[in-house]
Amino acid sequence: MQKVYAGLKENWVEKADHLALRLNMDKGTVLGALSAFTQAGRVIYDINNGSYRIRELSRESLPLDELRFSNPREESANRFVLTNKVKVAVATREGKQILSGTVADGNKAYEPELVIDKDDRAVSGKCTCNFYSQNKMMQGPCEHMLALRMMVREKQKQ
């Protein structure tokens, strides 16, 4: 990856295919490295001419692991989805999407429900978990409700 960055730094601006050819590297490998550098804030993609540019936003790379999720509940929800712990059913009632299902968390199974309006906002929800019983929706949806929503989005991508 550093070879790609050093190569781009020589010209400061270059298209991925030209950079791959100049460095005698596979275009897919170069694109993967450029994508990682873009996410880290060290390179930007110029959509107008399809080229990549060196652009250090900070001296240190951005901490992607810390920036990926806005809170620990989102991180847990993502883990549930990635480990296939979420079963979801989708229904429509009065123009709203009703997401319901089960989320396996250790030796427990929670039964969340989330109502999404036509503007894609979570308008209500419930769950059998402790976080919901203590906070309702005052601090946002619990990790199990978030997992339902993430799972629906994953299914829509397919």
Could you characterize what this model shows?
This protein has 158 residues and is an alpha+beta fold. The protein folds into 2 domains: 2-62, Orthogonal Bundle (Arc Repressor Mutant, subunit A), CATH 1.10.10; 69-157, no CATH class. 42% of the residues lie in helices and 26% in strands. The protein is built from 7 helices and 8 strands, in the order αβααββααβββββαα. The strands form 2 sheets. Strands 4, 5, 6, 7 and 8 form a 5-stranded antiparallel sheet that branches. A 3-stranded antiparallel sheet has the order 1-3-2. β2 (43-46) and β3 form a beta hairpin. The chain is elongated, with a radius of gyration of 21 Å.
Which properties best describe this structure?
alpha+beta, elongated, 158 residues, 2 domains, three-stranded antiparallel β-sheet
Structural topology:
Blueprint: H1 2-11, E1 13-15, H2 16-23, H3 27-39, E2 43-46, E3 51-54, H4 64-67, H5 72-82, E4 86-93, E5 96-105, E6 108-110, E7 113-116, E8 122-126, H6 130-135, H7 143-157
Antiparallel strand pairs: 1-3, 2-3, 4-5, 5-6, 5-7, 7-8
Helix pairs in contact: 1-2, 2-3, 5-7
